[in-house]
Design brief:
Length: about 250
């Protein structure tokens, strides 16, 4: 069960954030509106929401997931791999201190984005991506193993972040797309396979009694409901334009 989430309003400079997509420039007002709906969905899931104000110095800082890896007993402040995003951790650490006494750090030359980390029960999967390098992955693995978790490093071939293409719903069930559908590392889990045309919907989030899914992906939504989960749809079009999805917009713990 998650008790808390941390989210951050898209700042004035959000439209200048990093992207690899060809979906056009996001509309700030619409992004703020969608962020508000996201918060409402989280509240429906029964979590306490800590809402941080936007910071125009960091256009991508609404994607708070990349700044930390959180468990019930400790936090890891990451070292985000994009230069323009690295300073986001400075504002996040004091917020995490309100919830955690035990805080670790990923140190340079290691880089790591929270979007590359997937927890499945006491197992962590750490993606090596354009943002998370081998040194960062090994540092996190050592921290996790020191805290009695298990950790496996997974090299990404195509996805931007690990969680761009995989989500854990609980009860041994994962939602997978693209390169993870047949990836041997994930073979022991029950799989809900996202069709190629709905690949973006692999980034959904289980929050307590609900799975929050992006609006506009009916096949994936139906598969998740058929597996016995209640869903809430949230429109994320303005976040998708900057390669962001539902998981990226919150830290859940
Ligand atoms: C970036 O390029 O860093 C942002 N525009 C998107 C970050 C998405 N975060 C995530 O998948 N965890």
């Amino acid at each position: 069960m998650f008790k808390n989430v941390i989210v951050k309003t898209p700042g004035e400079s959000y439209v200048n954030g990093l992207t690899t997509s060809n979906l056009g420039t996001p509309v700030l007002d619409k992004a703020i509106e969608q962020h508000h709906s996201y918060i409402e969905a989280l509240k429906t899931c029964g979590v306490e929401v800590t809402l941080l104000p936007g910071n125009a110095d960091f256009p991508d800082s609404t994607f708070v997931e990349d700044t930390a890896v959180l468990t019930a007993n400790f936090a890891v402040v990451t070292n985000p791999g994009a230069v323009s995003r690295n300073g986001e951790i400075i504002e996040m650490e004091p917020v995490l201190r309100k919830f955690y006494d035990n805080i670790y750090h990923i140190e340079a030359p290691g880089t790591l984005d929270g979007g590359d980390i997937l927890q499945i029960e006491d197992y962590f999967y750490i993606g090596i991506s354009v943002r998370t390098n081998y040194e960062g992955a090994v540092q996190l693995k050592q921290i996790l193993e020191g805290e009695n978790f298990k950790a496996t490093i997974v090299e990404l071939k195509e996805f931007f972040h690990l969680k761009t293409g995989i989500t854990y719903l609980g009860e041994g069930t994962i939602v997978v797309a693209g390169e993870f559908v047949d990836h041997p590392v994930f073979n022991s889990y029950k799989k809900i396979v996202v069709p190629p045309e709905e690949e973006y919907a692999a980034n959904c989030i289980r929050v307590n009694d609900y799975v929050i899914v992006p609006a506009g992906f009916p096949l994936t939504k139906q598969k998740i409901e058929d597996a016995g989960y209640k869903t809430i749809e949230v429109d994320t079009s303005e976040f998708r334009k900057l390669d962001g999805g539902l998981s990226c917009l919150s830290l859940r713990f």
